[in-house]
Each structure stands twice: as structure tokens, then as C-alpha cells.
Design a protein that fits this description.
The protein is of the alpha/beta class. The protein has helices at about 5-10, 20-30, 45-60, 70-80, 90-100, 110-120, 145-155, 170-175, 185-190, 195-205; strands at about 15-20, 35, 65-70, 80-85, 105-110, 125-130, 160, 180.
Length: about 210
């Protein structure tokens, strides 16, 4: 099974982010199976080096997917499993035209229209949000639970809920029917990352 098909069939889970090799290792050891490498401040050479190392780490797990944020050329060069682009990044139509057919592509959306357009263009999944206000992206548009639910209802690809999701409000996000949940601060800042991921997995298994 290629990684695109794997992504589509993955059970509901936590979508994780890493900006260092050590964090990537800790997330994988803790059970994370979707890793997005995002580092907005890294120069191309540093980004490339980290991406190569992270990709190798993720490849040690047959059931894990490695996604690069924004840097399409680097993602293609290292053979990453996928790429994620935002509405303000390179146009996703152009990105799709450049990617191998079996490569995962995620597209950010904060409206139902954007989500439906991305799906029609061939997106593997939609990153919907920001669901709640988020300290990691204070200028993000907050769409709220209702818009997240509307996006889930109007597309047939997996939806990743992102933005301000915490232990206190994740159950609200789960009830929308979203497939995965991006929780940067709540996971990466935990004293025990493996323990936090286990706790979240149990909440997801309970269905919120």
C-alpha cells in the first residue's frame, strides 16, 4: 500500500508536528504516525538536512507518514510521503500538477468553498481551521466548530482539525466527525509526550 492510500485508511488519530530531529523521535516512539515537518525559520540547507533525517526516521515505521510543510521542491527531492500547502503558500493546483500520483497532498481551508475546491482539485486531505484561537498562530482566522462540521459534511476526503485544540475542547472537535486532530502545543509541550498521546488515543477510541 502506498502512503497516500495508507493516509486515507488510517484510523482516527493525532496529527503531529516536529521541527527538530529529537522531537520527531519522541513523537514516533510515543505512537505518532503522522508527522509534519514545519519550520518556518529554517534556511533551505538546514530545512533539507532536517527533512532528510526526519524522513529516514519515519520510514522505520511502515504505518507512518512523513509530510513536509510548504517546501514543495524539498519534499519532492527527498521523496517525502506528502506535502501540505496553505492558502497563502504556492497555489495548490500548481502543486498538484507537480506531484507524483501516489504522493499525499494536504490543503488548508477555512471555508467550505475552499475545502470543496481543494478536494475537486485532488487533495488527499483538508486541514480545516483554525478551529479555536491558537497561541502558535495568533493571526489565524478562527472558523469555529460549526464551520469545521460543515467542511466535514461537504467533503469526502479526511479532514484534519487544526488550531487551538486542547484536552479541554478536543471532544467538541471529535463530535464534528473530523478524522485527525492537530495539537501542537498540547502534545509537544507535554512533560510526557508518550503519555499525552496515549491519553488522547484513549479519548479518540471512546469517540469523545
Amino acid at each position: 500500500m502506498n502512503k497516500k492510500d495508507l493516509f486515507k485508511t488510517m484510523r482516527r488519530g493525532i496529527y503531529c508536528f516536529a521541527d527538530t530531529i529529537s522531537l520527531c523521535k519522541e513523537l514516533l516512539n510515543g505512537g505518532a504516525r503522522i508527522i509534519q515537518f514545519r519550520d518556518k525559520s529554517a534556511e533551505d540547507e538546514e530545512f533539507y538536512r532536517k527533512a532528510i533525517e526526519m524522513c529516514a526516521l519515519v520510514r522505520q515505521y511502515d504505518d507512518a507518514v512523513f509530510i513536509v510543510n510548504d517546501r514543495v521542491d524539498i519534499a519532492l527531492e527527498i521523496g517525502a510521503d506528502g506535502i501540505h500547502v496553505g492558502q497563502k503558500d504556492e497555489d495548490f493546483h500548481e502543486v498538484l500538477a507537480r506531484l507524483p500520483e501516489d504522493m499525499v497532498i494536504g490543503v488548508s481551508a477555512n471555508t467550505v468553498k475552499q475545502a470543496m475546491e481543494a478536494e475537486m482539485a485532488g487533495a488527499t486531505y483538508i486541514g480545516a481551521g483554525s478551529v479555536f484561537p491558537t497561541p502558535s498562530k495568533p493571526d489565524a482566522i478562527v472558523v469555529g466548530i460549526d464551520t469545521l462540521e460543515d467542511i466535514v459534511k461537504n467533503v469526502n476526503v479526511p479532514v484534519v482539525a487544526i488550531g487551538g485544540i486542547t484536552m479541554e475542547n478536543i471532544r467538541q472537535a471529535i463530535k464534528t466527525g473530523a478524522h485527525h486532530f492537530a495539537m501542537i502545543s498540547e502534545v509537544n509541550n507535554a512533560k510526557d509526550i508518550a503519555g499525552r498521546l496515549k491519553e488522547l488515543s484513549e479519548i479518540l477510541q471512546q469517540g469523545g
